[in-house]
Amino acid sequence: MLSGALALAYVASMLFSLTLTRAGEGVAVIWFASGILAAAFLLLPWRWSLPLAGGCFLINFTCNLLIGNPPLAALLFPILTFSEAFGASWLARRACGATLRLTSFSRVTRLILLAVAPATAVAAIAAADLFTLYGRNFNVILTSWFYGHALGMAIVLPAVLLVARPDMIRDFRRSAGEQIGLYILIVAVSAATFLPVRFPMSLLIFPALALLSFRLGPRGAAVAALIMAVTLSSFVVSLPAPVQLTSWTLAEKTRSLQFLIAVAFLTNLAMAMAVADQKRMKRLWAGRTRVARAAQARAVSAGLAKTQFLATMSHEIRTPMSSIVGFTEVLLKREDLPDPARRQLALIDRAGASLMAVVNDILDFSKVEAGEVELRPTVITPRAIAQDALAIVAEAARRKGIDLQLSFIGPVEAAVLIDDLRMRQVLLNLLSNAIKFTERGRVGLEVQVLERDAALNLLRFKVVDTGIGVPSDQAERLFKRFSQGDSSVSRSHGGTGLGLAICKGLVELMGGKIGVDSTPGVGSTFWFEVTAPRAEAAAPQPPAAKDERVLSARILLVDDHPMNRELAATVLGLLGCEVILAENGEEGVAAAQTSACELILMDVHMPRMDGLEATRAIRALGGANATVPIIAMSADVMPQMEAACLKAGMNAAVGKPIQIQALHDVLAKWLSPDRKAKAA
Fold first, then answer.
1. What are phi and psi of 634, to 5 degrees?
2. Could you tell me which of 227, 215, 89 has the C-alpha nearest to residue 161?
3. Whose CB among 55, 195, 272, 392 lies 3.0–4.6 Å from 213's, allowing a Cys bridge?
4. Is the dihedral of CA 420, 421, 423, 424 positive or negative?
C-alpha cells in the first residue's frame, strides 16, 4: 500500500514539476519527485524499493522523451534524479540513524544539511556540467537545479517521513472537518499572495501556518508546507506577479517564492516540533506522575501491611507470653515453693522478660520509623535520669562482677524540660549493651551539662566500658536497623540489632546526635547529646510507694482465650476482686446488662463480636453502663489500636502480658473513690 502511494505521488509530482518547468521557460520552480523517491528508499525494503525505482525511472525517461528532449538528455534526467535520491537516502541514514525518527527540529535540520543539501548539490553540479553539452548556461542550470531540487526534497522528504509515523498525531488528533478547513485556509492564503493589492499578502502565510502547527503538529505543518509550495509554484507561472514584484524577471520571482517557501516551512516546522516536544514532555510528566502516585500508593499499602503484620505478630506473640509471664509471676508469689523450683521459675521469668524485650524493640523501632513516637517533656534533673537508669542495670552488673561508676560535670542538679522516659530508654539500652559486651572491668556513666545560652542546656551522656570494643569498619553500621557488630553464626551475644537504631531515632527526634568511639580489645564509648530548655526546679517528690491495698471490686472480664481468662481471674483474685467471666463480646454485653459490675476488662480481638463493638454496645445501654470504666486488655499495643479503643468508648488500655503490679495500678486508678464520686 505504501509503495503504491509513493509511486502515484512520484508520477504526479514529476508531471507537476515538468509542467511548471515548461511553463516557466525552463526554470525549475520546485522539484518534489527526488524527495519522494528518497523516502521510498528509506521506508521500503529493497525488494520493494528497487522495483519501484525501476518503474519510476522508465516513467521519467518516457515523459522526457514525450516533451521533446533528446534521447540522451531524456536519459540523463532520470539518472541524475535517481542518483540524487539514492545519495540523499544513504546520507540520511548516517546523519539521523537507521530509525530516522524526526522527533526534534535539530534532527530535521541535520537531515536537510547533512543529507538533502549535499546530495542535491552534487547532482546540480553534475547536471550543470553535462547540460552544457546542449548549449545551456552552467550557472543557470546549477542554481535552478539546486534551488528547485533542494527545496522540494527538503519539504517532501520530512513530510513523507512524518506522515509515515502514526505516533506523530497522538497529541494532535483533530476532526476531519477541522483538518480539511485548515488545509483549505493554507491554499487560500497562499493564493492571496498574488492578489493585485499593494499590501504584501504573503505575510499572511506565517500566522496561518502557525495556527495549523499548533493544531495539527509537525505532521500537519509538513503537509501544509507541501500544499503551500504546490499552490505558490502553480500561481507563479500562471498568474501576474504581485504589485510589489512587477518589475522582476521570472527567475527573480521564482527565487523569491522559493525563499518564502523555505522560510515559512522551516520556521513553522520548528514551531510545530517545539509544541510537539512540549506535549510529549507533558505526557511523560503525567505518566511519571501516575507511576509515582502508584508507587506512593504501593508504599502506603506496604506500610499499612507492615503495621498490620506487626500488630498481628505482637498479638500472636504476646498472647502466649501473657500466660507464661503471668503464671510465672503468680507462682513466684507463693510462699510454699522449694528453692530449686523458685530458682527455675526465676529463670523462666528472666527468659520471658528477654523475649518481651525483643518484641518491644521491634515495636519501638516501628513506631520510631513511622514517626509515631510522641515526646512528653517533664521537669527533671539530669542527675535523677542518670541515677534511675544506673539503678535499673545495677543487678545485671553485680551478677557479672562489673564495677559501675557514675560521674557528673556541670550543673546536673539544674532542672530541665525533657522526656525523661525516652532519655532513660536510650541510657538503659547503652548501659545494657555495655554490660553485655563487658566480661570484666568497669562500666561508667558520665553526665555533663553545659549552659548553651540563657534558656538552653546541653546534656551530654557518655557510657564508657572496658569491653571487647568495635572495629572501625563495623562502627558505622551499628546504628542501622538489624545490624550488629558481630553477625556471624558463632556470635556469643544475642539481640535483634534494633537497640542502637532505636536510640539513634529517639535522640534525633529530640534534636540531638549520637555516636561511638571504640578501640578493639580496649573498650567503647557510646555518647549522645541533646539540648533541653531550663525549667523551674520542682520540689523533690518522694518515690511513690507501691499501692498494695486490696481492691475488693466486682470486675467483668471479657476474653476469648481460656488461658488468658484463667490467668486474669487468678490475678484479680489475688488483688481481692470478684470476677465475672465472659467468653466473647456478645456475652460481655449481656453480662454488663444483667450484672452490676464496677469495672470491665475487655479484650479487643474476639470472634463474633470484638471488643470495640462490644464497648459501643455497652455504652449504648445507658445508665450505669454509660459511665462504667472499661479498660482494654489486649496484646495489640500499636498506637492505632489504642486510639481506636479510646474512640470506641474505652477509658484506658493495659497491654499483655499481664503484670500484677501494672494491672493493680490501672484498676486502683479507675476504682478510686474520687472517680466513683464523679461518676455518681
1. -140, 155
2. 89
3. 272
4. positive
Alpha carbons 511 and 506: distance in angstroms, whole number:
9
Decide if pLDDT at 427 tops 50. Answer: yes
Contacts of 494 by beta carbon, 8 Å cutoff, 6+ apart: 354
Q: What pLDDT, on a 0 to 100 scale, did the predictor assign at position 26?
A: 53
The H or E element spanning position 676 is: helix 673-679
CA-based torsion, 375, 379, 380, 381: positive or negative:
positive
Q: pLDDT-based confidence at 675, cuts 50/70/90?
A: low
Give the sign of the dihedral formed by CA 24, CA 28, CA 33, CA 36: negative
Alpha helices in 333-381 (DSSP H): 339-370
Buried-state track 244-279, b at ≥16 Cβ within 10 A, e below 16: ebeeeebbebbbbbbebbbebbbebbbbbbebbeee
Of all residues in the chain, the percent with pLDDT exceeding 90 is: 14
pLDDT band at 443 (very low <50, low <70, confident <90, very high): very high
Q: What is the DSSP letter of 480?
A: S
Assess whether pLDDT exceeds 90 at residue 613.
yes
- Name the band, by pLDDT with cuts 50, 70 and 90, for residue 494: very low
Q: How many C-beta neighbours within 10 Å does residue 76 have?
A: 20
What is the distance between the alpha carbons of residues 166 and 169, in angstroms, rounded to a whole number?
A: 6
**Does the pLDDT value for residue 251 go beyond 70?**
no
Residue 455, Cβ neighbours under 10 Å: how many?
A: 9
pLDDT confidence band for 488 (50 / 70 / 90): very low
What does the pLDDT look like over 361-373, one tens digit per residue?
666 666 666 666 7
Please give the C-alpha separations between residue 660 and each of 98, 331, 575, in angstroms, as whole numbers: 81, 12, 8
Q: What is the DSSP letter of 201?
A: G
Q: How far apart are CA 32 and CA 17, in angstroms?
A: 7
Residue type, 267: T
Cell, residue 395: 543487678
Nearest to 25 by CA among 188, 215, 251: 251
Angle, helix 339-370 to helix 250-332, in steps of 10 degrees? 160
* Short-list 541, 648, 540, CA closest to 585: 648
The pair phi, psi for residue 407, each rounded to 5°, is -135, 150
Q: What's the longest Cα–Cα distance across the chain?
A: 135
Termini Cα distance of the chain? 94
pLDDT at res. 493: 47
CA atoms within a 13 Å half-sphere pointing along the CA-CB vector of 290: 5
Q: Which amino acid is at 510?
A: M
CB 48 within 8 A of CB 3: yes
Percentages helix, strand, coil for the chain (3-state, rounded to 5) are 65, 10, 25
Confidence of residue 549 (pLDDT cuts 50, 70, 90): low
DSSP-derived 3-state class of residue 67: coil
| Torsion sign over Cα 468, 473, 479, 484 | negative
Tell me, rounded to whole angstroms, the distance of Cα 512 from its chain centroid: 29
